[in-house]
Structures are given as C-alpha cells and as structure tokens.
Specification:
132 residues; mainly beta; Lipocalin; 8-stranded antiparallel barrel
C-alpha cells in the first residue's frame, strides 16, 4: 500500500505546479511588476508570456518584454531578456527561481548586466508574485 501511495505521489507531484500555472494567468509581484502567462505546454511544463517591470530604481519600466519559463513540481523558473524590437534594449537578463504554493510564487532573482566598464555584473533579490 505504501508503494502505491509513493507511486501516485511521484506521478502527480510534477503536475502540481503545472496545474497552478494556468493559461491565461496574471501574476503581480510585491514591487508592482506584472507577469502574464499566455502559453503552457502541459506535457513539459514550459510556458511563455510577457513581463512588465514596474520596480522603482530599475530601467525598462512600463514596457512588455518576452518571458519564458518552466514549472516542474512546485519549482518555477523563468527569465526575461530585456531587449526587443519595439521596446528599449536594457542589455540585461533576469532569471527567477522559486516555488509555487497555491496562488503565490516566492522567488529569488539574479539580474545580469554589462556595466560602464564593459564587464558583466549581477544583482540579486527576492520577489513574491500573487495570482490576480
């Protein structure tokens, strides 16, 4: 019986985050930035959408940037390359890694950028996204 429960858990656990990352969905973080998920492949957990930065003190605010990520189990990872054709090129990439529980995603992020010295630098921080 224990083996049956373990098997059920192993089969269903990877679906839990994918079921919580729904299409379409909108997530707002504690700094007012908005992540919108437009597509989701339920077989792989990969998703795509847009991200609008509204965080004070950071460039590229108010424009829609492409976002891509994946959800496996309760683990969620996504990134934004802050450049595009019709939006400012901020020459940065941000990667979020976190856990989804119900309607909240708690993340740690790393932002990589090229400084005025032409070297790569990074900033780190935390965000909590709430499904709206």
């Amino acid at each position: 019986m224990k083996k049956l429960f373990a098997l059920i858990f192993l089969v269903l656990a990877p679906l839990s985050a994918q079921a919580q990352v729904t299409v379409p969905s909108r997530w707002v973080n504690d700094k007012g930035s908005v992540m919108s998920i437009h597509t989701l492949d339920p077989s792989t957990g990969k998703f795509a959408g847009t991200y609008i930065n509204n965080a004070a003190g950071f460039k590229c605010q108010g424009s829609e940037y492409q976002l891509e990520g994946s959800a496996t189990g309760n683990q969620v990872n996504f990134l934004v390359n802050w450049k595009g054709i019709f939006v400012p090129d901020c020459k940065t990439i941000t990667i979020w890694n976190g856990r989804i529980v119900s309607n909240r995603i708690t993340t740690m992020w790393t932002l990589y950028y090229v400084g005025s010295d032409w070297r790569f630098h990074k900033l780190t921080g935390q965000d909590v996204f709430t499904k709206r």
